[in-house]
Structures are given as structure tokens and as C-alpha cells.
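stage 2 :: seqdesign
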């Protein structure tokens, strides 16, 4: 970090170039654009694919709210599809149920790091002429049939918030397969400025300050400031180099929870093995049986000094969205799962002793029911 501070570049410099080139190489794609957040990446991806007013984009409701917000922010309408009860991802079948003549695209979230069925979803997209944005914000390093997620869609978005597998503090990235899309993304993240030239990963050859660019005050379209700082890129580049080690530690932690909690009455565990998939463990989320009081379980865990979360409250039931007049298709799996999830403490350096303590407390809490 101190080395970055000694350079003339705080933005659009060599660390950006190196980080983007590393991301593109890791995913075997031609272009990677680092941006200020995964949410910014989703918004830019939709704009780049010319989605806007009058269009519909199919998204899961069991997801972080940004997937729906980004669709609304470009003037389009999110249409919610239900999820598979095992992987918690949307599927070809659930997307087919909600496709209409106004459908333009689908945002496929690889939920909790489990790859979605991109083969089936690409088939649906081809039949209905839909573009695909992969939301891989929770899934960097996950693979489907030996191919990394983020390489299947028209564009793919990653997030590097502190709770993710790797972090840049705040930050994200968009992967693109065409020069046209890469250049549009590059303009959008930099206030709509023209592209002076590109180097590896589709980034500017020169950066730093406006004195370096004769066209710094020339804007070819309306854009935003979604740049990622040199310091963040330096952190991301180092983190990316450790990704396989990080994923290995997180897999060990997931497998340890599975061993500790296997067979516990009232607790359904996430799948450890999904055929054809390599999971990138983002969080460890169990599902409580219908007879188990989730609020009471969380209270007991909190009394034992153990934090827990409820990933995800369905988007269509959130206050920000439930007041919007819009016809919602039946989402029985989404609503059932959303009311039963419980995220346990999970991070790269969690120890076996810590997990044993969590498991013991959960087993105790599940056995304590409200009178």
C-alpha cells in the first residue's frame, strides 16, 4: 500500500491494469473492468446491454436486493423467478414460467457460491433471445463442468466487499467478452469519458490525473464515477493470488460444519457436493424445520455470544419493494426458504474449536422451543 502512495497514481494506474489483467486471465476472458462495487457493476452491465424503459429482466427474489435495485435504476422492471430447493438458484424451468414478450434478460445469481445451471439457463436465453448477466458476487472461483463461473454470460459481475472470499475493501469487477462491451463499461465507470487506448484487461494505457489526458473533460455519454482506487486494486491483486488457499480453507470449514451438524433433527444443511460443480463457499447457511422457532434459536445463540443472520429475506417481501404495485408470480420455494434460513459464523480463519462451539450452541438452541 505504501508503494502505491509513493506513485503519481491514485486511480487509473498500473495497479488497476495489473489487477484487471489478473482477473481476466483467471477467468479465461478477454476483458475485466474493476469498479467501485458489485452493485455498480450490475447497473453498468444492464446499461451496457441496452436494457431500459419497457424491458423486463428476470431475477431471483431470494438474493441480495441489489439485483432488483439495479434493474429498476435503469428503468426496467424486475420479474421474480422461483428457486431450486437444493441449490437455491433460479433454474431454466423457473425462468420459463415468467418469460414474457417484454423479457430482455436474466440476472443469474450463483447463490452462496453454488453455481447455477448455466447450461439450462443459456438454453432458455437462446430460445427467448435473452441476454444473461451472471451475478457471481458470491461465487468467485466456483466452477461448473470445469469452467469458472463468470465465463458463461454476456457479462458477469463480481463483488469484493469485506465479507466476500476476497476483498478490496469496497469494490467489484465486470467481465466482458467483446471489445465493444469493454469499452462501453470503461466509459460508464469514468464519467462517460472516451477511451484513449487500452492495455491488458481493457484498461487505459495512461492514468492518474487529468493532466495525463487531453480528453479528460470530453465526455461522449452520461456516465458515473465507479472507478476503483489504486490502493484497492493492489489489495485485490494480492488477494486474488491467495484465492486458492482461501477457498481451500473455506471448504474445510464448510465440511467441518457438515460433520458437526449431520443428523441434527430440525436442521437441514447446505449441499456439500453438487454434481459437476465446485462450490466457492461464501457463507454457511442452514435451514431450520418448520417447527423450529428461528427467532428463539437466534436469541439462544446470541446469549451464548454467537452471531447469526437470516440470508436472505425475499426481495419482494422487503419494505422497499412490497409497496410497489407489481404482479408477482407464485414463489413458494423462495418464501418457504426465506423464512427458515440461518447463517452461522463463517470466515476464512474460523477455527475447529470455534465451529464446535457454534455447533453445540445450535444443537442446544434447536432443542429449546418457545412455550
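stage 2 :: out
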Amino acid at each position: 500500500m505504501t508503494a502505491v502512495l509513493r506513485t503519481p497514481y491514485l486511480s487509473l494506474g498500473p495497479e488497476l491494469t495489473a489487477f484487471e489483467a489478473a482477473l481476466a486471465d483467471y477467468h479465461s476472458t478477454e476483458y475485466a473492468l474493476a469498479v467501485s462495487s458489485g452493485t455498480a457493476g450490475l447497473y453498468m452491465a444492464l446499461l451496457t446491454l441496452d436494457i431500459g424503459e419497457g424491458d423486463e429482466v428476470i431475477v431471483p427474489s431470494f438474493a441480495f436486493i441489489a439485483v432488483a435495485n439495479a434493474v429498476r435504476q435503469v428503468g426496467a422492471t424486475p420479474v421474480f423467478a422461483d428457486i431450486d430447493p437444493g441449490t437455491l438458484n433460479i433454474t431454466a424451468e423457473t425462468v420459463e414460467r415468467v418469460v414474457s414478450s417484454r423479457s430482455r434478460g436474466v440476472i443469474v445469481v450463483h447463490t452462496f457460491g453454488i453455481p447455477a445451471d448455466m447450461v439450462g439457463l443459456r438454453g432458455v436465453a437462446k430460445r427467448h433471445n435473452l441476454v444473461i448477466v451472471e451475478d457471481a458476487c458470491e461465487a468467485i472461483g466456483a466452477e461448473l463442468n470445469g469452467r469458472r463461473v463468470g465465463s458463461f454470460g454476456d457479462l458477469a459481475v463480481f463483488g469484493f466487499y469485506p465479507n466476500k472470499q476476497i476483498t478490496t475493501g469496497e469494490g467489484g469487477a465486470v467481465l466482458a467478452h467483446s471489445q465493444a462491451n469493454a469499452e462501453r463499461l470503461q466509459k460508464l465507470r469514468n464519467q462517460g469519458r472516451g477511451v484513449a487506448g487500452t492495455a491488458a484487461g481493457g484498461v487505459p494505457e495512461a492514468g492518474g490525473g487529468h493532466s495525463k489526458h487531453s480528453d479528460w473533460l470530453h465526455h461522449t455519454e452520461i456516465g458515473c464515477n465507479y472507478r476503483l482506487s489504486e490502493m484497492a486494486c493492489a489489495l485485490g491483486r494480492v488477494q486474488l493470488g491467495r484465492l486458492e488457499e482461501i477457498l481451500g480453507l473455506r471448504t474445510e470449514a464448510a465440511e467441518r460444519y457438515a460433520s458437526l451438524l449431520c443428523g441434527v433433527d430440525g436442521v437441514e444443511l447446505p449441499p456439500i457436493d453438487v454434481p459437476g460443480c465446485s462450490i466457492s463457499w461464501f457463507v454457511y447457511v442452514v435451514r431450520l424445520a418448520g417447527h423450529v422457532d428461528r427467532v428463539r434459536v437466534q436469541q439462544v445463540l446470541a446469549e451464548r455470544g454467537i452471531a447469526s443472520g437470516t440470508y436472505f429475506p425475499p426481495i419482494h417481501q422487503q419494505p422497499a419493494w412490497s409497496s410497489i404495485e407489481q404482479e408477482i408470480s407464485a414463489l413458494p420455494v423462495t418464501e418457504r426458504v426465506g423464512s427458515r434460513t440461518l447463517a452461522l459464523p463463517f470466515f476464512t480463519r474460523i477455527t475447529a474449536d470455534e465451529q464446535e462451539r457454534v455447533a453445540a450452541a445450535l444443537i442446544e438452541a434447536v432443542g429449546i422451543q418457545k412455550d
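stage 3 :: structure notes
- The two ends are 55 Å apart (CA to CA).
- The longest strand covers residues 103-109.
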